[in-house]
Amino acid sequence: MNIIIVGCGKVGQTLAAQLNEEGNNITVVDTDAARVNRLATQLDVMGVTGNGATHAVQSEAGVKNADLLIAVTGSDELNMLCCLIAHKESRCKTIARIKKPEYGDDIRFLQEELGLAMVVNPELAAAAEIARILRFPSAIKIDTFAKGRVELLKFRLPEGSPLIGKSVRDIVAKLGCDVLICTVERGEQAYIANGDLVFADRDVISLIASPRNASEFFRRIGYKIRSVKDVMIAGGGEIAHYLTEMLRRAGIAVKIIEKNPQVCEELSARWQDVTVVCGDASVQDLLLEENIAGAGAFVALTSIDEENILLSLFAKRVGHGKVITKINRIDFASVIAHLDLDSTIYPKHITADQIERYARAAANTLGSNMETLYHVIPGKVEAAEFVVSDRSAVTDVPLSELKCKKGILVAAIMRNGSVIIPRGKDTVQVGDAVIIVSGDLSLHSLTDILE
Question: 385, 371, 375: which is closest to 350 by C-alpha?
């Protein structure tokens, strides 16, 4: 596909890298010439310097021959204008990043009036992921499939866990839970699990199950499964805004610490039942005074990654609640993974996954559509949901007889509202939603799992 990306910030850079790896023809556009040149050289893609909301710059970027234009600048209004011009000039599909809460109620209207194929909101998506984790604090990360009826949960084995030293096959048989262990991360190594794999101390495990079966699994191994009752948030920005709305609806008490007096006034005026503390969250005495040690969860959402990391490490040292850390910069992800953090959230990765899923689905015409895409272990393992619309070489054949590529796991089948954790005798049928966990990072259709 020919794809134009307007905006070379963190989201744009992540998108350009991921979509370029997929074999698409990428052109990046930004007003910052140095940023354009750096990204174009790094990824060996085309670069255009200028205002992507102008007809002249879009023409230079090749909008008439583009299949997709993605506007991810820091301005919602500029992104919408970019897409409007592209929609008028070309038949290409358009995706706009719209992050401001005040546009929240108008998204459907804007999408229809501007002809947008998709609207992405990194801040809203990040808040939704944080809210899911707070409802199930034993998990490091939770991804959902089939409109929330199937979950992929990632968790770390603590010291002394009853799972250590036991194989995947033994655990599943002993506990009798209808779950599927998908992946195991051990240091720098990543494995797609098989029955013989033996769990070790500090392993990070991913499993797939329905929400009810996942809860039962964690209950049987002695993990905490109840939602937190109160949350302390450091930083009062857009993610905090969306997250607070979600937590209030769930009956969870919220306390926000924000150092900007004007923002504090706005937050206090908006929510009468939310405690807003005007102060610097990096001051340890303030955190202790506000009882960080007794908080059910602490979420670091300031605009500075280093501050979020230090705040989270302090929260882990003095408290016993769930700790979630927002990270904006993605270039040090491998370093951050070695820190003793609990859950880390990368808003840019979440958005890039959403757009990559759309791009793959748009390029596919073979009997199944990709509905959802997550990078379970970035750069190593991904999980994708396909809806089967037509018969193919994958349908009506027992899974044990399919000649799948190495590193492919048929993790779950959603059929008529029921979740099936498949065994060898099960088959894929037209109308199913099928979840694939794969070490092959280039799946576009369900038939790509075959040799």
Answer: 375
Q: What is d(CA 190, CA 167) in angstroms, rounded to the nearest whole number?
A: 16
What are the CB-based long-range contacts (under 8 Å, 24+) for 81-87?
Answer: 81/53, 82/6, 82/52, 82/53, 82/58, 83/114, 83/115, 83/116, 84/114, 84/115, 85/53, 85/54, 85/55, 85/58, 86/4, 86/58, 87/114, 87/115
pTM equals: 0.83
DSSP 140-180: SEEEEEGGGTEEEEEEEPPTT-TTTT-BHHHHHHHH----E
Are 433 and 353 in contact, with CB atoms under 8 Å apart? no
The number of helices, as runs of H, and strands, as runs of E, in the chain is 14, 22
pLDDT bucket at 366, cuts 50 / 70 / 90: very low
What ranges make up the beta strands (E) of 31-135? 46-49, 68-71, 93-97, 118-120
Q: Which residue, among 351, 388, 389, 354, has the nearest Cα to 373 in the 3D structure? A: 354
Mean pLDDT of the residues in the chain: 90
166-181 pLDDT tens trace: 898 888 888 888 889 9
pLDDT digits (tens, 9 = 90+) for 36-55: 999 999 999 999 999 999 99
Q: Answer whether residue 362 shows pLDDT above 90.
A: no
- What domains sit in the chain, N to C, each tagged with a CATH number? 2-120 (3.40.50.720), 126-220 (3.30.70.1450), 230-345 (3.40.50.720), 364-449 (3.30.70.1450)
Summarize pLDDT for 296-318 with one digit per residue, the tens.
999 999 999 999 999 999 999 99
Q: Which helix (H) or strand (E) holds 207?
A: strand 204-209
* CA-to-CA dists, residue 177 to 170, 183, 207, 256, angstroms: 12, 17, 11, 39
Provide the token pair at 141.
């990360």
Read off the amino acid at residue 321: G
Q: What is the dihedral of CA 340, 375, 124, 223, to 10 degrees?
A: -50
Tell me the CA distances in angstroms from 382 to 258, 295, 357, 442, one per residue in order: 36, 34, 11, 9
> What's the confidence (pLDDT) of residue 368?
56
Q: Which helix (H) or strand (E) holds 245?
A: helix 238-249
The number of angstroms, rounded, from the C-alpha of 105 to the middle of its chain's C-alpha atoms is 22
Q: What is the pLDDT of residue 334?
A: 67
Residue 102 pLDDT: 85
- Cα(79)–Cα(70) distance, integer angstroms: 8
One-letter amino acid at 23 equals G
Burial of 167 (0-12, 13-18, 19+ CB in 10 A): middle
Helical pair 107-114 and 76-89, crossing angle rounded to 10 deg: 30
